Amino acid sequence: MKPSADCITPDGFAALESELKQLWEGERPEVVRTVHWAASNGDRSENGDYIYGKKRLREIDRRVRYLRKRLEDVSVVDPRRQTDRDRVLFGATVKYERENGAVQSVTIVGKDETDPANGRISMDSPIARALMKKTVGDLAPVITPGGEDELEILAIRYPD
User: Fold this and answer.
1) Other Cβ atoms closer than 10 A to 60
2) Dihedral of the CA atoms 4, 80, 68, 48 (nearest 10)?
3) 155: Cβ contacts below 8 Å, ≥ 6 apart
4) DSSP assignment letter at 86
5) What is the pLDDT of residues 74-86, one digit of tens each?
């Protein structure tokens, strides 16, 4: 399968499914009970439990709709099954050196599982786009918010 802009790892897919289940089967029924109880207390215009509960239900329902749509639209790509392990592709962990000598490591993931603080960057990010399809030793020019830079690929690793 050719990776598209809507790729996700199996772990990322499982996390979205887990969030959906927790919202739909855990949090939403509890909020519905609270709203039902608050509505039975009479005047809803000044009933904080009712007003907050209805607002929270809208938030939950909006997130549930989003998650269901995303789970239908994404393509699960397992980086453990990558056969061309010499190239930077979706799911790779890449160690590179910047022009200033700083060495960094990032894992290229889908947009739903990015976590830059932990080195997980979207495949749509400028750095990931610059690294894609490169091999160890290649130089990857990149334009970032901080300006132009050149990244030298030091290592490429895929999960086993």
Assistant:
1) 16
2) -120
3) 94, 95, 136
4) T
5) 999 999 999 999 9
Domains of the chain: 7-76 (1.10.287.180), 79-157 (3.10.50.30)
SS3 6: coil
Q: pTM, whole model, 2 decimals?
A: 0.81
Residue carrying the six token digits 């393509």: 75
Which residue is associated with the tokens 């130089």? 139
Burial 141-153 (b: 16+ CB within 10 A, else e): ebeeeeeebebbb
Amino acid letter for position 16: L
State phi, psi for 125 to the nearest 5 degrees: -75, 155
